[in-house]
Structures are given as structure tokens and as C-alpha cells.
Design a protein that fits this description.
Length: 474
């Protein structure tokens, strides 16, 4: 055989048959397919641990593509793990899909609920789940075409919004052999820095008193509502005497049934956040003392239930630089004329002083490294203290949009959301491909994780030993 032909055959046998360009083209060709999945979940918003249809749709999509799907993991009906391949490295991609209560909204640039007081995807988890599934299937196809060794998993993680689904999945040992975990989140900009979040403990405080006629026999009553109000007053006084980075907020979920009946039961739902999980625990202990004092002062009985507790995100610069490079390769979101008009109308609804431009959706935020927690909290934080973790944000919303708003729901239900979702899917895909091609990255990422969390670190879930609160949204 001609020696040049032999050389060509050898080169061909060791060259990728299915490379980056082909992978991205295939993702583009299926953008509408994955966009339809996201819209189905958007149109049927389901709250934490109740995401039966959303979870089933993502599971079916993965199963049809060739993944082995295990449902109902960690004693959570809507949690699942989809797996392809075997051996090392093990790369996981997390997928969320729960909605938020009270933010129902049509895909229009003005306030118009679909159902008054209904749920809505104001944090974009319909896009989160669909993009993660898209990335998983894309990477799996690439692995098959190129005979890539290793294990790929997509983790279906319910109830991120205050339910802490990932905490219970981690506690069940579902990530103990993972080398790298990836995630993303909808947002109003494109960013893939090594940044953090706020640790958080959320709790329901319940007070039990004695009912009585509020006019005829008020002296016989012991008001549980008085206890709630007394506790909340003391919590508000605490704000002056906690670290300035602290965030404390609450709602009264039960306050009584009628003004002329002294409330025998009342409940308030509290969050306490800080960039450091240890500080959160200290402030929470003080919050419990206010509840005990309120019960003592009103002659009521108090019980509390920790609903959720999550660590702050632990950044991993090793992985974040790879993801940032891939985000720059993919680029941001470019609007059509119709999308630009939609964005301009959304921007008009912002409070005075919020500066943004539709063009910002096309920009990539400069790379940064910071352990200062900002914004909200996420149960990804617990994962990041156990496994090297990396994530990105993509502009699925109009620049300047805040999470948990009707504006986020509106953009997430139309083409702007889909475009941002595909930016995330492509970036996740390329990052997973890079790590599979160079598994030595996982060693460096683990070394960084060990350095950041410290030699003496021992993981203890902030939720204690409780089971997942499957009824917290009921």
C-alpha cells in the first residue's frame, strides 16, 4: 500500500470525525426543537417538588436520545439522573425546571398575567432545564461519533427556589464520583466568571395560641399573630446589628382567619443570607432567640422548621476560564428588529435610574474572580463545596431585567429567551468537550477546590438531617 495512503489513514483514524463546528451546527438545527420544550414548560409552570410534567418531558427527551434515565432519586419524585458512557472523567450537567408563585405573565412587554396570582417562570428555569438537556444530548452525540471515553450525566434537580433539591441529591451520594459539575442560569447578561453567591437559611416559624372572641372575651385569647408581629419587630431591629452584607426578609404566611377571632395559629417565613455560611448560621441562631422571646412575651408556643439551607458558591477559576473562553467563542445574543422593539418596550417599564440598552445582550462580561457573594442564593452552592463546579449566565432576558419579575417571565416565553438558552447550551457543550479531551483539567480543578475550602473542611448540610420538604409549596 502506498506509504502516503497509509499515513492519511493513520491521521484519519486519530482525528475527530465530528468536531466543534459540526456540533454547533447540529445544535443550531435543533434550536426550535429545544425551544419548543422550553415553551411547554413555560406554559405549564410547576412549583418546587411538584414539577411532574416538566420533569417527565425532560426525562423523555433524554431517554429518546439514548440516555439511561433513573427517576425518583434521593426520595424525590421529580428528581432524576440521566447517564451515558462509563469510566472517567465523570462530567455532570445540572438542569432545573421549577417555577415561582405569583408571577404569572404572558409573553408581552406589558403587565398581563396569564392567571391572576398564578405561577410563572420568573427565574427562567424552563430555559435552564431545556438548555442543559440540549447540551447533554449534543455532548453525547459527539462522544459517540468520536468514541470518547468517560461518563456524562444530566442531573434533573427540582425545587431550586427555596426547596434545595440539590442538597438532598448530594446527601444521597449521587455526585460523589463526579469530577466536574456544570450549570448555567438565565439572566440579563452573558458572563462566565469565577464568582460566588449568598449562603441562605430559610425557616417557617409557627406560633400556637388560644382562640377567643376578640370583643366579648379578649382576655381569654392568646394571639399567635401577636407573636409573629413581635418576632418580626425584633428581627427588623436586628438589621442594625448584623454584618452589612446580610439580607433578611420574610412574609407572613398565616395570620388568622377573621378579625373578631383571636388567632390561635400564625406563621411567618424567613430568609437570612450572607456570603459566608458560618455567619448565616450565627445570625439564624439569633433569629431563633427572637422567636423564643416573642412566644414568651405573648404566652404562646413556638415551633420552627428549617425549610432550606444552602452554602455560598465556591468559585473555581480553573474551570471558569475554560467556560469564559467558550462563551467568547459563541458570543452573545443579537436581536432581530422585532426583538429589539420588544426589548425597548420592556426597558420603558423599569424603575427610574435603571440604565440599559438592547445592544448589551450581545456583549460578554469581562472575566472576574471574586468570592464576594452577590445577588441571590442557590443550592448549586452545596455542590460547589463537594465537586469542582463551573457555571455561566446567558442573556435570556432584556438587559437590565431583574430576576423574579414579570419582565423575566415575558422575555423567557419568547424568542429572546430561546436565543439566550442556545448560547448557554453551546457554551456548556464546548466546555464539556474540552474537559473530555483533556481530563488533566479535572486534577487542577480539584486541587483548587481543596485549596479554597481548606484542609479541615467537613461538609454538613445546613438543613440538618431532615428529608426534602416535598410539601413546602402546597
Amino acid at each position: 500500500m502506498n506509504k502516503y495512503l497509509i499515513l492519511l489513514l493513520l491521521l484519519f483514524s486519530f482525528s475527530p470525525l465530528f468536531g466543534q463546528d459540526e456540533v454547533l451546527k447540529k445544535l443550531d438545527s435543533k434550536a426550535d426543537f429545544y425551544g419548543d420544550i422550553a415553551r411547554q414548560i413555560w406554559a405549564n409552570p410547576e412549583l418546587g417538588y411538584l414539577e411532574t410534567k416538566s420533569s417527565a418531558l425532560l426525562q423523555k427527551t433524554l431517554k429518546d436520545a439514548g440516555f439511561k434515565v433513573t427517576a425518583g432519586v434521593a426520595e424525590i419524585p421529580t428528581a432524576f439522573v440521566a447517564e451515558y458512557g462509563s469510566g472517567k472523567p465523570v462530567i455532570g450537567i445540572m438542569a432545573e425546571f421549577d417555577a415561582l408563585p405569583g408571577v404569572s405573565q404572558e409573553a408581552v412587554p406589558f403587565r398581563k398575567p396569564v392567571v391572576e396570582g398564578g405561577a410563572g417562570h420568573a427565574c427562567g428555569h424552563h430555559l435552564f432545564g431545556a438548555a442543559s438537556v440540549a447540551a447533554g444530548i449534543s455532548v453525547m452525540d459527539w462522544m459517540k461519533e468520536n468514541n470518547i471515553k468517560g461518563t456524562l450525566r444530566v442531573y434533573g434537580t427540582p425545587a431550586e427556589e427555596g426547596g434545595g433539591g440539590k442538597v438532598y441529591m448530594a446527601r444521597a451520594g449521587l455526585i460523589k464520583d463526579v469530577d466536574v459539575m456544570m450549570h448555567w442560569h438565565p439572566g440579563s447578561q452573558n458572563a462566565a466568571g469565577a464568582t460566588s453567591s449568598l449562603a441562605n437559611i430559610s425557616t417557617k416559624f409557627r406560633f400556637y395560641g388560644e382562640a377567643s372572641h376578640a370583643a366579648a372575651a379578649p382576655e381569654r385569647g392568646k394571639s399567635a399573630l401577636d407573636a409573629v408581629e413581635a418576632m418580626n419587630f425584633m428581627v427588623n431591629l436586628m438589621r442594625e446589628h448584623v454584618p452589612m452584607e446580610t439580607r433578611m426578609h420574610y412574609v407572613i404566611t398565616r395570620g388568622g382567619e377573621a378579625p373578631n377571632v383571636v388567632p390561635a395559629f400564625a406563621e411567618s417565613y424567613h430568609y437570612v443570607r450572607h456570603p459566608n455560611a458560618l455567619v448565616v448560621q450565627e445570625i439564624f441562631a439569633r433569629m431563633v432567640k427572637t422567636a423564643e422571646g416573642a412566644a414568651l412575651g405573648t404566652q404562646t408556643r413556638m415551633e420552627y422548621e428549617v425549610i432550606n439551607g444552602v452554602y455560598n458558591l465556591l468559585p473555581n477559576e480553573t474551570l471558569a476560564r475554560i467556560m469564559h473562553k467558550n462563551l467568547e467563542t459563541i458570543g452573545g445574543v443579537n436581536y432581530s428588529p422585532e426583538e429589539r422593539k420588544f426589548a425597548e418596550d420592556i426597558i420603558k417599564t423599569y424603575p427610574a435610574g435603571v440604565k440599559s440598552s438592547p445592544e448589551d445582550a450581545a456583549k460578554i462580561t469581562p472575566f472576574i474572580v471574586s468570592e464576594e457573594g452577590g445577588g441571590g442564593s442557590t443550592d448549586v452552592g452545596d455542590i460547589s463545596w463537594l465537586v469542582p463546579t463551573v457555571g455561566l449566565g446567558a442573556a435570556t432576558w432584556v438587559p437590565g431585567t431583574s430576576a423574579h419579575t414579570w419582565q423575566a417571565v415575558a422575555a423567557g416565553g419568547m424568542s429572546i429567551g430561546q436565543k439566550g438558552m442556545m448560547v448557554a447550551a453551546k457554551t456548556l457543550t464546548l466546555t464539556a468537550m474540552d474537559i473530555f479531551k483533556d481530563p488533566s483539567v479535572t486534577v487542577k480543578a480539584l486541587e483548587e477546590l481543596n485549596r479554597r475550602r481548606g484542609a479541615d473542611f467537613e461538609y454538613k448540610a445546613l438543613v440538618g438531617d431532615r428529608k426534602a420538604p416535598l410539601d413546602y409549596r402546597k
